[in-house]
Amino acid sequence: MHLAKRLDEVGFSDIVQIRNKVMELRAAGQPVHAFHGGEPFFETPESIKDASTRALSENRTRYAPSSGIEPLRTALVHKLQSRNGISAAVEDVIVTAGGAHALYVAFQAILDPGDDMMLFAPYWTPIRDMITMEQARPVMIPKSSARRNGITETLEHLSTPNTRAIYYNTPQNPSGLVFSRQEAEEVAAFAIKHNRVVVADEAYEDLVYEGEHVSIASLPGMAERTITCYTFSKTYAMTGWRIGYAAAKDPFMTGLRKLVLYSTNGVSTPTQWAALEALTVPQTAIASRREEYRQRRDLLVEGLNELGLECDLPAGAFYAFPRVAKIHKESRRVAAMLLDKVHVATIPGVVFGAQGEGHVRFSYAVSPEALRAGLDALRKFFV
Ligand code: PLP
User: Against a cut of 0.90, is the pTM above it?
Assistant: First the structure.
């Protein structure tokens, strides 16, 4: 008995393994300061839950079109135009089972075995596995040196004849980096010059504290070569609902439609009605959540720096990525020590690629009380 060869090099997300370990500790009655997660600190808004209950009581429980219910896709077109500056028609939008599914079908739609895919590193862990699953090769673009030496120069230097596409995530997980408009323009110019596809991951589009969120597909000449992936998980605290969407033009959308049809045959119908309701949440409510995240970020980053865990101020998302090499040079050891000694759960930076070594990732999507308690526990680590 053996598995398909294309799974040989594919790992099982370390993040999920850590999440399982924390659940085990908790089940054994041990308190854990949980900074390892990637979930909003608030619950799904009531109006969204009500919309799903309403859909159930109205018996909206049958197969939906595999690419998504029409009212949701129409509302998404409006959102893409008004908030992202991406001009799209209904046929350019597809509903997926979360952002992860959108990315999965995007990679499947564009990568052939032997292709290279460029990605800025450190990167969100599953991306490497998703590329490898297509028997394609991830080509790392170290983010710090790219910023130091110039994005264009670095992309030109690392580009290979087999490069098919670039994964472009802003705001970025795990570093919280937000690419500037000029940086987006440089990536776009490179993609156009060399005829590359861009897979844009905008999961954290609503969590930008400094600078602006620029959707790369909104730049001239980019809509036709970009598959942009979104999720309801982060903005609306809907991680467990499993709904997201992608925007793309043909030929890519034809591929996405086939892949969604044969992977999930669409997202559960009541969840889609709930997502439609989510799009009516006012921007003022999203902005006040953002402000709450900003306060948590400032509290955490200040606390980490006070402890000598040097941390740049992340401009977006809800993660801090301090340097921890002064505790131990291997971040896996540091994360294990923090968890064992003071029950502080973090993610070792190395799981986000070699460029993340020497760091651990903290999520500040937790309550201010949990944040303060976690910082107190960390102080004990150093005494
Ligand atoms: N992209 C990034 C960078 C993420 O961090 C995540 C979730 O952590 C996702 C996409 C996908 O989220 P989901 O599958 O919950 O929509």
Answer: yes
